[in-house]
Design a protein that fits this description.
The structure holds 2 protein chains of 2 kinds. By secondary structure, chain A is mostly helical. Chain A has 8 helices and no strands. In chain A, helix 1 runs antiparallel to helix 3 and helix 5 runs antiparallel to helix 7. Chain B is an all-alpha fold. The radius of gyration of chain B is 25 Å and the shape is extended. Classes of the chains: A mainly alpha, B mainly alpha. At the A-B interface, helix 2, helix 3, helix 5 and helix 7 of A face helix 1 and helix 3 of B.
Amino acid sequence: MANEPTKTSTPQTKTKLVLDILIFIVFLVAMDPHSSGIAIHEWLTLASLAALTLHLLLSWDWIVEITQRFFKKIGTQTRINYVLNWLLFIFGTLVMVSGILISEAALPSLGIRLPQGFFWRRLHDMSANLVLLLLGLHTALHWSWIVKTFDRYIFQPIAAKFSTSKPKDVSA
Amino acid sequence: MKTFGRILIILTAFTVLGGLMMWVGNANGVNSPSFARNSGEAEFRPLQGDEDGQEGSRPPREVGEDHEGREGRGSFGGRWVFSLIKNVGVISVLVVAIVLPKSIIKKKRKAPVSPA
């Protein structure tokens, strides 16, 4: 989700929306491993690495553009957004790495056994909570995009389906 | 080819960052059993000595026990709903705290200045 130069084509915006909804649902499920079970928690988050990579690929132009212009003249919100995205990437990586190191289902099923560590377990919990806060900020900074895209691709098509007005007859 | 290159860049950044974190974690000895003792924290280890003699390893899990051993704290559905509300609530509070003031400022700027 890029909030400034969003010159993305319609199918790409649609893909972004679907992908972001998917990532959000996966995140909510992953945040409660007690309910989903540890195996689902681990496999789902490992699979989400692909979705997160795709999310970054879809915002690639924005990332490159802001990286090049970061020390030049850009808006404050864009600058904050860029720094926040990097923090999200760093702490997201920390959650993933610490999660892999304390894996109880995914890695053992592949025949990989790592020594369990108290430090990595605590770090995994702490960084996951931090990612939740960063995700909240990330969502807030992209709120106008979310509202606009939801309206365009979800609310408007639904409203159009339930609309009682018939299309004008132009044949006469 | 361009996309493949970009994927490689993302995965390389992930691997380098992850490797760095692991190196820092292991180099400082924070994962060693003595780390918890030095920092004054209670170390997670079985009460009785395990057969392998491994320090810091977890006790074997009971059948039906979840991975944290917190069985019996509530039903599956109730716990999941509580967790869902908590997480969505945190995100919603942050969104409201940022979006609401922003929209108020925007409206104030847009409001026409009344003639004196």
